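Appendix B, example 12.
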Amino acid sequence: MFLSLELSGSPAVSGNLVPLTVIKGAGHEFIPLPNGENATVADFHSIRTNTTESPSYFTSGFYKIEAGPARPAHYTFEETKYVLNGQIDILDEATGITHHLTPGDFAFFHVGSKVQVRYDQHPFFTLKSPGRSEKNNTLTWFSTKSSGFAFYAVTRPVRAPHPNLKDREEKKSRL
């Protein structure tokens, strides 16, 4: 038995049924680190949304980090991270709290965050929110003492395709 739910006041949706997109085994594929890098993203699915209010890209992937130097990035999109394995440490200088993200933990990053590389015994990133004075900037540092693995969803197109998941989307349902 299937349940059909229609909420009053909800936006109209096409009467055509739309099939799911499925990528079997996505989380089991090896993600190689680029030569000389200790962190990488691996985008495995991206669409241009059909949201009528504000269409944009919606991309999913995995984030992998190991101890060592990292590259800078500038957030021009929203991002969520959900830790699946290992640990990713985040020091938020706005609050002075160090968050030790472990499997099951979630973090959200806002548009405008800027990541800068800084090296220490264990490298970390510094995130800065634009439009604030240097004195009042919100700073967040990322590091790991061993390795961390997270799922992410971002509002941007594919930037770094997962090398082992290209063209793996199922073309039709396997009921």
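The two ends are 15 Å apart (CA to CA). Confidence is low (pLDDT under 50) at residues 1-11, 114-140.
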